[in-house]
Design brief:
Blueprint lengths: L4 H58 L3 H5 L4 H5 L20 H4 L6 E5 L4 E4 L8 E7 L2 E8 L2 H4 L1 H52 L15 H49 L7 H29 L7 E4 H11 L1 H6 L3 E5 L6 E4 L1 H17 L6 E9 L2 E9 L32 H11 L3 E6 L3 E10 L3
Parallel strand pairs: 6-8
Antiparallel strand pairs: 1-2, 1-4, 3-4, 5-7, 8-9, 9-11, 10-11
Helix pairs in contact: 1-6, 6-7, 7-8, 8-12, 9-11, 11-12
The protein binds adenosine-5'-triphosphate and magnesium ion.
Magnesium ion binds next to α11.
């Protein structure tokens, strides 16, 4: 049989309460018998032994037990302990201070038996488990002093105790059921309901409903955190799903645009609207180049995604890579009227990386600055080492990127200016590729607003050695 959590909790609390109640009942019983009744009996035995010399002396003085049969009222006087050094005469025995045994009536449970074990005087129903002491006179046992234990005469008390315990057991048992029910009710409302909600929501999430959320209950306990993490999870899934959709839409759009242009131009050529000359070929080729670059970039990003992008890392000096790239862009920069300023340290910038990928990284950044900086502007590059890392700062002049768009620059297909014409801009993949390259080198790349008025890109890479 499968019990739900609330029922199991109910059973567990009930079981625990019953076990505790039973253990306490058994403990009380053991205590009463072993400790309390044991104590009473010990005291009574002491009293018994104290009485033996007095009873013996009585026998000697009276020459038998007959006097007790005649005058049973002397019995308790006979039981009085002998005074130290005093006379043993029955009439002169002083009343001693009552002992604990006296107070619980031990001497009322004493019986005197004669040599033939017939009762002479005292408690008239000595029990089978009675404690006995012989009365010895001149080497002969002339009688027995017998003590009947407390529990043998107190069956009423025992029964009362058992009844009381049963009553208590009923009360405790009822209390345990109520407590267990209350705990289970509370738990199913306060603890299990949120868990059930999360379980149901997970079911919906698994079925593909990424808009599923569970109500946040505001608690900072495990359940509150579970709900919070669940919401985070479905939000992430929802975001990933919409990113995937956007990505597909972007890819197809990016591919269709150059293909559409190509198609139109080819048709114009075919129909004779346009002549097949060098400018026409150049235009066709440039569309093919755009397509080619786009497909290459997508391929590269998808490789980076599956972790298959291979890096051939060697020890290298970053200064050389930066120098090479700056040199390669010299002509481009001059033609766009940008003043380049490169500041490199005198000592090497040792990195452990893939030279080709790092060149690609800086080429992408230079390419962006050429594309997205107004003519007559400036481009400043500064590289330095700070402890275990190397910082490369690239500043350019206006235009910049709006603050709220800065963190999004590294997203795929993100272009800061939606109005930017297809010709001057790319597909918006360059910076995401840059980010992949930097991450593969255990570094970081951040975009901020530059004091020069344009974009400030900071690359931080770990120094090697
Ligand atoms: N130096 C810069 N100054 C101003 N804006 C920039 C600069 N670099 C990038 N941007 C903005 O960030 C956007 C994303 O850049 P990214 O390099 O990722 O893509 P892209 O250059 O548009 O296309 P691709 O690099 O794939 O050919 C650009 O479209 C541009 O709007
Ligand atoms: Mg770019």
């Amino acid at each position: 049989m499968k019990l739900n959590l609330a029922a199991r909790l109910f059973a567990a609390v009930l079981g625990a309460a019953v076990v505790v109640a039973v253990a306490m009942g058994v403990g009380a019983h053991v205590n009463l018998n072993r400790d309390f009744l044991g104590y009473l009996n010990e005291q009574a035995v002491l009293r018994l032994e104290l009485a033996v010399p007095g009873v013996t002396a009585g026998y000697q003085q009276q020459g038998g037990w007959e006097f007790l049969r005649q005058r049973p009222e002397l019995w308790f006087r006979l039981l009085r302990p002998l005074p130290e050094g005093g006379s043993a005469a029955l009439t002169e025995r002083p009343k001693a201070a009552p002992t604990p045994a006296e107070l619980t009536g031990a001497s009322r449970r004493f019986t005197l038996l004669d040599a033939e074990r017939r009762r002479v005087v005292g408690f008239d129903a000595p029990a089978a488990d009675a404690i006995e002491r012989g009365i010895v006179v001149d080497g002969l046992t002339v009688g027995w002093l017998v003590l009947t234990p407390f529990e043998s005469v107190s069956s009423g008390a025992e029964k009362r105790f058992a009844d009381a315990q049963q009553r208590t057991a009923w009360v405790v048992g009822g209390g345990a059921v109520l407590l267990a029910a209350a705990v289970a009710f509370w738990a199913s409302r306060r603890l299990l309901r949120p868990v059930r909600e999360v379980a149901e929501a997970t079911h919906r999430l698994a079925a593909g409903d990424y808009t599923t959320r569970v109500p946040a209950r505001g608690g900072d306990d495990e359940i509150g955190r579970l709900a919070h993490d669940f919401n985070q999870l479905s939000l992430t899934l929802q975001r990933n799903e919409s990113m995937r959709r956007e990505f597909m839409a972007d890819v197809s759009h990016e591919l269709r645009t150059p293909l559409g242009v190509l198609h139109g131009e080819l048709e114009a050529l075919e129909d004779g609207v346009r002549r097949l000359d060098t400018p026409a070929l150049r235009s066709l080729k440039s569309e093919v180049v755009t397509l080619h670059k786009l497909v290459d970039d997508l391929y590269e990003l998808s490789l980076a995604d599956v972790g298959a992008l291979s890096y051939r890392k060697t020890e290298l000096d970053l200064r050389e890579i930066i120098d090479d790239t700056a040199g390669a862009f010299g002509e481009r920069l001059r033609s766009t009227g940008l003043a380049l300023q490169v500041q490199l340290p005198a000592e090497p910038l040792p990195a452990f990386g893939d030279a080709r990928r790092l060149r690609q990284l800086f080429a992408n950044l230079f390419e962006n600055s050429c594309r997205y900086t107004d003519a007559g502007g400036a481009l400043h590059l500064q590289a330095r080492r700070e402890g275990a890392q190397m910082l490369i700062d690239l500043h350019d002049s206006a235009p910049g990127v709006r603050d709220e768009q800065l963190p999004r620059l590294f997203e795929r297909f993100f272009r800061a200016e939606a109005s930017r014409s297809r010709r001057s801009g790319g597909a918006g993949l360059g910076l995401s590729i840059c980010q992949r390259i930097v991450q593969a080198h255990e570094g970081r790349i951040e975009a901020r607003a530059s004091p020069l008025g344009g974009l400030w890109l900071r690359v931080a890479l770990p120094a090697h050695g």
